[in-house]
Write a structure and sequence with these properties.
Elements lengths: L1 E5 L16 E6 L6 E4 L5 E2 L5 E4 L5 E4 L5 E8 L1
Length: 77
């Protein structure tokens, strides 16, 4: 897993729709009010300890919350 932290002070314009070249699993280990949105889906609040699968090539973004967000990201080959 790779640890990624997003600051609560991050400018929302930096959180753009994008896609990745590998499948990924993302896990947050603390309560948060940040959200994850996959293409053609409504935003979903990121839940503690829940695994989110983001398929290769699928557009997605995160939506800023009120505290810092730290997630574990695992690239699948």
């Amino acid at each position: 897993f790779h640890i990624r932290t997003f600051s609560k002070d991050l400018n929302e314009s930096e959180l753009k729709w994008h896609w990745d070249e590998q499948d990924r699993i993302v896990v947050c280990e603390e309560e948060t009010d940040w959200k994850l949105q996959l293409d053609n889906e409504l935003p979903t609040r990121i839940e503690k300890d829940k695994q989110y699968f983001i398929p290769e090539g699928v557009y997605h973004r995160i939506i800023k919350g009120t505290k810092d967000l730290t997630v574990k990201v695992k690239k699948l080959t």
